[in-house]
Amino acid sequence: MKRSIYLRSVVIYIGVVLISIILSFWIMNVFYIDTIRERLEKDITEVGRQTIALYENSSYADPSEFIANIPTFNYNLILYNESGKAVTPIDNGKWRISSQHIKKVLNGGVVRVNDRTASPPSQLNVGLPFQDSDSRYALFIRPDLSFEENTIKRVMLTTLLLVLIIGSTIFVILMRYVVRPIQRLTVATKKVAVGNFAVRINSKRQDEIGDLSRSFDHMAHDLSHLEEMRQEFVANVSHEIQSPLTSIGGYARVLQDSSLDELERKKYLGIIQKETERLSKLSGNLLKMTTLDADDPMFHLRFYSLDEQLREVIVSLEAMWTEKDIEVQLDLKEVQIEADYDQLSQVWINLLSNSIRYTESNGVISIQLKEKSGEVMVEVRDTGCGIPEEDQAHVFDRFYKADKARSSNGGSGLGLAIVQRIVHLHQGNILLESKVGIGTTITITLPKMKKRKET
Asked: Model-level pTM greater than 0.70?
């Protein structure tokens, strides 16, 4: 059986209040008795003395007759003779006065008896010696406060019950106010679980539940954005894969025509090979991106010469920039850096490949390396076609292409996304500046030594 927080809270509250009422009633009862006990002892003693004095000044010859006729108001009086027998009123055993106490009073002592086994203070008895001309007596007095006691107890009990009823009613109402946002949050969570990321709580409460609701809204927003990215990623991957697969399939069917001459056959085979390489590159980039997106990507840090690495990358791409008669200008300061050699090689290859791809023949690509305040700065500047201003904010997004017509250039739209991810993993920054018709400048700043995370 499901136990809701609302029901559990109400039960706990009522249980706590009941325990509090019982303890409060007992404590109040005890304190009430202890508070009035001392006063009653003095009052009873004084009543006894006044009773004896009245008898001495009265015309009664028999003390028992006097006691039987005297108005005692809220006190009960009983008189014992020298033999320890009650002469007035008749002792029915409820007084619980021992013979020792009676004997002590008969011998002239004063006795105060407190019977805590019954309901005090009605069981508070005071014994005083009572003597006439012929005999000795023991006069015992007790207060008759049963009505007052019962009245006070009823008032106390009624008050505590009213506290329980009124408090429970108010608590039940207020708990609905507390539990309602939790119920809304539960419903919203179930909707998110089935894929509805548009649900929002929009709570304005300024407490822990409000913080929880706002955290939920933030989570739902992030999940919604993540789902959009996932769908866009799948669509982009499907598109990027479908295009070369369509080309390969089409040219493969053309090659089945036996009437094709050798020159045409080689041409179509070259196209198929190019599209296959494009697919292979896309697959490699996707795998690279997946590896970099891991929670703890494997990095192999070591110290090496960054300027030498840049020269090696430029030499490896020499066939590309010499084919277009591009001039490569170098201004490389000798710098030692701690980084992952292979990862940064991927960065320089992607950046230079882009610059070469989008720089016209006889253009210029300049590479500058400098060091400043424990950081190194690599600037790659080209005289290419440039990137429109409205596209510059998206060039690092996955599968984004500023010029959709360039899809045939072999780019997948993942190169700069991979570059940015590697730079950020090295705790660096990347900055792009571009003007259409003038060229593009990409500046990468890296720490000379990768900062270790504190554990």
From this structure: no
